[in-house]
Request: fold
Amino acid sequence: MYSSFEIRSATESDQTKLNFFLRYEFFIHQHLDWQPVLDWLGFQPFYLAIHDGEIIACLAAPSDVTDVAWVRLFACSSLYPRNDVWKLLFEKIITSYQGKISTIAVLGIHQWFVDLLLKQSFMVHQNIIVFEWFNNILSPPQSLSGLKIKRAEFDELSDVANLDIRCFAPLWQLPEHSMKKAYQQAGYTTVAAYEGRIIGYQMSTESYSSAHLARLAVDPDFQGNNIGKILLFDLFTHYSTSGIHKITVNTQEDNFSSKALYSRMGFIQTDEKYPVLIRRI
Reply:
């Protein structure tokens, strides 16, 4: 059966057919990203499985950071065995990356996909947990004299991206081109500036009634000076005066410093938990 499949790289000319395919299929994993998943068309590796001239599955895992690639998209028709189709497509991904990266990562949003990956030599690397804040503003923290919190400007994003690289392991970094996309979608982005240098930032998205803290980072050289707390206090003040009284944030379950910071600033951990799965290649 599988010998009759055509496995080929997706191109931008496939967008219409892929849109149609994704609109009607149930078994779809889309990474939580700053750009629509089909914006990755034209970036490789992005493979299609075709049978009798029709798309029956797709797998995209383009990398935009050093040594790691996230699975951006996997979808498979319910008429075909997902495990077998995944294996066919993933072998192409591994071949394309041979010697270039060491890790493929997946955010386990759907249980059917987690189950599939665990059968395909993926392992749970860590869990993502969710915190919520409900209009609980504490006293303003003290920090460095001369520290300024201000809205980030577009021309500062290169410096912000460089700071992000210093603060996060490759798995969690946001490169400059993605930072710019995120900035354009964010509702409120601020930087902590000190002596002409950006030493911290936060980026949050918003809806009608709530906001989500998507990024928070402080330069390692300046940690321990309450800069993260001050960025959060400014965030709380901004949204409370805007009529938004609920803010969510995600962090790694084993990131004890972040968990302690959010708890001290009035966030409460929820029951939500999502595994991050990885496979070394």
